[in-house]
Amino acid sequence: MIKTIFVVHRDGIPLLRVSLVEKKNDELEEFLELFGGVSSAINTLIMELGHKELRSVSVDEGALVYSSKGPMLFIIHTTEDADEPFAKLLIKQIEYDFIESYNHLFNDDEFFVHRDRFAPFESRIREIFTKLNTINQEYPELLEFLPTFVQLSQLYEILNIGLDLIKGYPEDTIKLARKIKDYFKEDDNQQKVIAKTLGKYSGHIIAKQTFKGEFVIDQQDVRELLREISVVKFDKKEEVFDITLCPICRNRTSETPMCHFFSGFIEGALDNPSITVQEISCRATGDKSCRFRLIRT
After folding, report:
1. For 249, which of 51, 206, 228, 284 could close a Cys bridge (C-beta 3.0–4.6 Å)?
2. How far is CA 128 from the centre of its chain?
3. How far apart are alpha carbons 240 and 223 in whole angstroms?
4. Per-residue DSSP letters for 181-227?
């Protein structure tokens, strides 16, 4: 359950508190009771490690999922571990909108003193939560795979592509997979992540549907799925899948391997958190075939 959302200055000054469960008379008391010294701990961690990724810390009543941007901390108090993927996507949506709305004030040394100027953003937080929660009800499994940088304006487009990739396997899956790069042209790195994410989701669901009842999907199972698409070999010693005629990069050229969809597809089908997949050669770069290595962590 998503319980409370905080927007906090990194000096520990609370700017907004939005309760999605109940209202308390003394907002500052609840903030201090729950948050205590956690904000300073988070701030120290950010300064020491310099990370920009989402993090979460355990508290007595669940976890605090947080993200940092500029002088701001954005925190969600969730009471269930299962809600963390949703909370991470939600906190990034809130962060994006808040920064866009108030970035012009960040150079004002006392911008955070006047807390009332942020009050209108509470309704925006509730609006974002409602929209994202509706999407979560409609696409519960796919939402878990989405990268947190995806904005609400892109969500439905990506989610619907994900569903179409599964429904049309294998022919329509390949047609759509080849078009993913056309949908998200603004940022090459984001395009790669989205392509791999949609591949991971597709591989995960298609493998579950194809091999019902199997407790573990192994490399030979994945090879059988890929054989629906092309000629595929698997080197057990090197743990490398070799797709001889890859339909993703057919008639395309690239300076770097570009078949991110298949990297994700293999990873999602295996559904093993200790295995990631990396494309180590690609026909688009002039190699004889597209090869994908399993990397065990």
Report:
1. 284
2. 17
3. 11
4. HHH--S-HHHHHHHHHHHHHHHHHHHHHHHTTT-SS--HHHHHHHHH
Does a cis peptide bond (omega within 30 degrees of 0) precede residue 14?
no
60 three-state secondary structure: coil
**Mind listing the pLDDT tens digit for each residue in 42-74?**
555 555 544 455 666 666 677 778 888 877 888
Tokens 């989701």 -> residue: 201
Q: Which residues contact 77 (CB under 8 A, 6 or more apart)?
A: 2, 3, 4, 5, 6, 34, 59, 61, 62, 63, 64
Do the beta carbons of residue 146 and residue 161 sit within 8 Å? Answer: no
Measure the CA–CA gap between 48 and 44, rounded to whole angstroms. Answer: 6
Cβ pair 220, 234 in contact under 8 A: yes
CA–CA gap between residue 215 and residue 164 (Å, rounded): 26
Q: Find out whether 34 and 75 touch, Cβ atoms under 8 Å.
A: no
Give pairs for 275-279: CB < 8 Å, separation 24+: none
Residue 141: in which H helix or E strand, if any? helix 140-143
Domains (range + CATH), the chain: 2-138 (3.30.450.60), 161-296 (3.30.1380.20)
Size (the chain), residues? 297
d(CA 63, CA 60): 8
Rounded percentage of the chain residues whose pLDDT exceeds 90: 42
**pLDDT per position as a tens digit, 157-187:** 888 888 899 998 988 899 999 988 877 776 7
Place of tokens 């490690």: 49
